[in-house]
Design brief:
mainly alpha; binds zinc ion; 171 residues; two-stranded antiparallel sheet
């Protein structure tokens, strides 16, 4: 009985193999293959097959980013009215900042969900980060204080709270 001659993996172009990707039928070695419930697949096919909830088009991303701008700016403006900027800790203002961060993260979460069709993933995590940063920049612009980390602890608490919540939510 003649054994089939081993061929070279198309991914690493190094290892000999007889294994083929179950989807695209390319030759892959064991090292370059990923075992899935439907058989061995090459890395390309696995990444193409990403869950739809993590797939988002670039146009949609840009639209989401643009739509977030007014919300970010507005949240920055409101923060200057509700939260005083100060360089020392104060329990009451800290609580106000936490609550404000919570409320803003909910609003941004809701808005991004609406615009980006309930998608998740790194790209949306970054958009939420940009949104909060824009809010901080607006606040810094109004209070004319760009040393947020040193002089504006309240803004920092608000921003960190909102960012942590949004980062988790869009995972
Ligand atoms: Zn290989
Ligand atoms: Zn494949």
């Amino acid at each position: 009985m003649k054994e089939e001659p081993a061929e070279i993996c198309y991914n690493c172009k190094k290892n000999e193999t007889n294994l083929r990707c179950q989807k695209c039928d390319e030759l892959i070695c064991y090292k370059c293959s990923i075992s899935t419930p439907v058989g061995y697949r090459c890395t390309k096919c696995v990444s193409f097959n990403k869950l739809p909830m993590y797939k988002i088009s670039n146009i949609k991303l840009i639209i989401t980013l643009l739509c977030m701008m007014p919300i970010s700016v507005l949240s920055g403006i409101i923060s200057t009215i509700l939260i005083p900027s100060m360089s020392y800790y104060n329990l009451i203002s800290m609580i106000v900042c936490l609550v404000y961060g919570l409320v803003i993260s909910q609003i941004i979460f809701y808005a991004i969900n609406k615009i980006a069709d309930n998608k998740r993933g790194k790209k949306l995590q970054c958009i939420s980060l940009i949104a909060i940063s824009m809010s901080l920049i607006t606040r810094a612009y109004i209070t004319n204080d760009f040393n947020i980390i040193i002089n504006d602890i309240n803004a920092l608490i608000y921003a960190v709270t909102a960012n942590l919540i949004l980062w988790e939510k869009f995972k």
